[in-house]
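Our preliminary data section would be incomplete without showing what the modeling component actually yields. Below, a chain of 295 amino acids is followed by its predicted structure, encoded as tokens that our downstream tools consume directly.
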Amino acid sequence: MADEAKYRVGMVSKMTGLSTHTLRMWEKRYIAVLPKRTEAGGRLYTDADVERLRLLHELVEQGHSIGGIAKLSDADLRHMAASFSSTPSQPAAQHLPELRDRVMKAIEQLRIQDAELMLSRAALSTEPSEFLQSVVAPVLVEIGERWQRGEMRIAHEHAGSTVMRGLLFSLMRLYPAGDARRRAVIATPATEDHELGALMVAMLAAMHGWSVLYLGPDLPAEEIAYAVNDTKADLLMLSITNLEPKDSQREIAAIEAAIPKRVKVLAGGRAASALPESRVQILQDLSVVETELSR
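Predicted structure:
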């Protein structure tokens, strides 16, 4: 029966070609489908849900915005799909270099709403880790490098950072705390005011089911330690971009001394540095961070 809810989210992901991340976003933000729930809270989909998701996926691949078509009837979606050529489109990932160029052009011209729209659409159709590594991080690096060369003004750097900060916050909110037994605290240490790296790993942690307490930038060691101890966190993640090595080492050592040894501590960012005797893991690759988070 078409109305029997029988497919779990992993199977639907395989049947439709949509990642579980995209399915969750389309359901939460656009109510593209309304899956039923098991007693344990898992999602179950009908044949009709699967057909609708396939149609939506096809139309988005053809260039339609999910926000513009998510509330259309199944009949309207079938009619729209029939009007397109059956030639398969390129995977979304192949368009990411072009997307980066268009986002950079929009920021260069201070067309911030255009940049936000392009990034939001890409986030809906790209795996989170790939989106961070192939879009967000390269754009931020390019903005910083062009500012240092005098090709962009401080206004461009601030505008680009504001766009990314708002986007990452909104994406992080799409992942309600999963397993409350896995708690993570994420912050940057004292005098470190660059928080976008911390926001990126906060989003990844939330995506992997961690209950995330995001503290933001520039926190004294004692405040970070207080948050870890008060929440009984299992994981502390620090983003360190601009500190001198001795300052990074001092802050990390102070935090380590004030939290239990059972707490795993990960630090990342180009300036992250710890003393030789430290138990902190220094990770510079988001894919490695994601591996740690998925354990």
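The mean pLDDT is 88. The CA atoms of residues 6 and 44 lie 6 Å apart. Preliminary results of this kind motivate Aim 1 of the renewal.
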